[in-house]
Amino acid sequence: MHVLFLLASLIIKPHLDTVDNWQVYQNKKLLAAYNTTGETIALKRNQIKQGDLITINYFRDTPCSTCSTQLYIEDANNAILKTLKAKGTFTPFKFTLNDILKNTKTSTYLFYRLEDGQNSRKLLFKLMIR
After folding, report:
1. 20 to 30 Å CA-CA from 48: which of 2, 6, 24, 84?
2. What is the pTM of this model?
């Protein structure tokens, strides 16, 4: 019986998951703070001013200071509008809202994060402009 348990534990590798936390700011105002992914943030178009800065802070319980990280911003048709790159898991991503709004007429934006060693991008959140 012990041999069976030992064999099973060697064959079946548990999937270790990390605890993700992320925050989104518009200038210095906190728009959202979650530990889940795929949430939707809604902004009214008349609340957006020229030069408004979006900052995305991402944290997890297993930091990596040397990992290469990317943030992909896509429109509703999955066209990549902007790609940001950073070093380390705690490095914030910053961009102006006008950087993504000026080149598209869509009202839905998808924010994906990818890190060294990951096989697929993780949808952090959706931004809806109304």
Report:
1. 84
2. 0.79
